[in-house]
Every structure is written in structure tokens, then in C-alpha cells.
Amino acid sequence: MSRDTAWQKIFEYHRMDKHDFDSSPYELPNSKIKEVSRYFNTTSDREVRVLCKMDTRESRPQVFKDRALFLLPTTNSSYVIVKGEGYIDIPSIEKTTEIYTSKLDYSLDTSSVGDSEMQHVDFAYASSLIRTALQDESLVLTIRGRKYTPTFSFRVGQSEIKVASVQTEVDAGYEGRTQVVLVEAKPAGVSNTIIRQLFYPYRQWQHFTKKQIVPFFFSKVANEYSMWRFEFTDPQDYNSIKLVDAQKFVIRSNT
Predict the structure, then answer these.
(1) From the centroid of its chain, how far is CA 101?
(2) What pLDDT, on a 0 to 100 scale, did the predictor assign at position 70?
(3) Looking at residue 52, what is its pLDDT?
(4) Within a domain: 93
(5) Which of 31, 89, 92, 133 is the most buried (most CB within 10 A)?
(6) 123 near 141, Cβ under 8 Å?
(7) Does 141 lie in the same domain as 51?
(8) Are residues 65 and 163 located together in one domain of the fold?
(9) What is the DSSP annotation of the chain?
(10) Left if phi > 0, otherwise alpha if psi is -120 to 50, otherwise beta: which for 27?
(11) Is residue 235 domain-resident?
């Protein structure tokens, strides 16, 4: 079954077409999804996590696209369907590619094995490219993997949304003397991403430190390392995200 069909059935079963999304989000606990998905044919069709993965505008089911909706988790067992702009564009970087000379004076044999986003982030950090791009030699790796948010609230348009203990994951988090940098790494060709992947970790780590929190988007295309630095001008506003800077580099060996 296609995702479009699956979500059309969920919408019809719960009569969501009768809900006024302009006035308020629609609360959707996992249990309401399972009421419908238990009748779907395959395990993947029935899995809530798979059904609710909508990381780009294009990955939304058609009923979401038609109504300008997007999905946000509020706990680890519930979501809200929200009307508004849930995504941010990742623009092409028009600046000239910079040649960066690695600060390592030896080769990393293990970094050439495989081709994962995490691996590319680690190599950029090991070469001191990330420190250089952020102009902060004090940055050290301190965050990785899955954690759970504290309770916090925010706005999408006029809607107030409350989040409690939602699982988040960053590909790498670096702490320096004055800032904490949270890296979201994506494969080549991603042109937009759901703001949640930057916003939830941003709000999460604000709870634990007074240092500046820097959302940082990373991608490697061919031999170019591309980096976008964002900021939220209002921590209470999901849509206050803006691009601060974007750079791309080629790493040259120092050996």
C-alpha cells in the first residue's frame, strides 16, 4: 500500500477532513493511527514510525500536501498535525569552493572505508575543518546519538504546541568555550528538511547550557564538504529559523 493511500484511509476513518486546521492542530496519538493501520497488509504499512517519517516536503502523503499540513511529535506516542510551513530549504551554495588543508600530518586509513554521513562528519572534524569553518578551535565532540527532550512549548503560527520527552538524535554535537554546535548530516541532493530536526535538539540543549546553540547542516557531495549554519531568532517560534552562513570545501591532505 502506498503512503498516500494509507494516510487517506487514516484521514477518512477519523474524519479529519472535518477538522479546522486553521484554528488548531489535530492531536493524533499512536493509538488512533493503529486503529486504522492494523488492517493494512504489510508490517511496514502498519508501523507508526514508518508512516510518520516525513523528513522532506516531498515525502509527505498527498492529503498533507493538499492541505499544507505537516506532522510533529509531541511525545514518543503522540503527534500533532499542523497547518503551516514545516520545512526549510537547503539552498545551493553559490560561493566558490575553498581548498582546506587538513591539520592532520598523517593519513586516516579507516576513514576511507564506507560512505556514510556520520563518517564524513567525523573526517571533517578530525581534519579540523569544522573547527575552522566555525572559527572555534575549542570545539570538542561531546554529543552523539539518541536522547530525550525536556518539556517545552513553542508556536507554529498562532498554534501553541507542547512537547515532552520526545526522542531526538544528532549526528554530532561539539561543545566549545562559548557555543554548542549540533550537526544534522544528510546525503547528497537533499534540497529541504523538516525544521523539527534542527529545532527540537536546539530547544533540548538550551535547557542544559547557557552557551549559544548553533544548528548546523552538513552534506558531502562528491569531494565537496558543504556546511550551512542556521539560527533561531526566537526560541519560542518554530518558524524563526534563518540561514546565517553557507560554505563548501575540498579537503587537501597535509601528508
Answers:
(1) 29
(2) 98
(3) 96
(4) no
(5) 133
(6) no
(7) no
(8) no
(9) --HHHHHHHHHHHTTGGGS-TTT-PEEEEHHHHHHHHTTSSSHHHH-HHHHT---SGGGS-HHHHHHTEEEEEEETTEEEEEES--EEE-----SPPEEEE-S-SS--GGGGS---HHHHHHHHHHTTHHHHHTT-TT-EEEEEEEEE---EEEEETTEEEEE-S-EEEEEEEEE-SSEEEEEEEE-TT--EEETHHHHHHHHHHHTT-SSEEEEEEEEEETTEEEEEEEEES-TTBTT-EEEEEEEEEEEE---
(10) beta
(11) yes
Structure pTM?
0.95
107: cell is: 593519513
In a domain, 7, yes or no: yes
Q: What nine digits make up the cell of 49?
A: 514510525
If we measure between CA atoms, which residue out of 147, 170, 167 comes closest to residue 217?
170
Among residues 49, 63, 59, which one has the least CA distance to residue 13?
63
- Residue 44 pLDDT: 74
Which residues form the domain of 68?
3-84
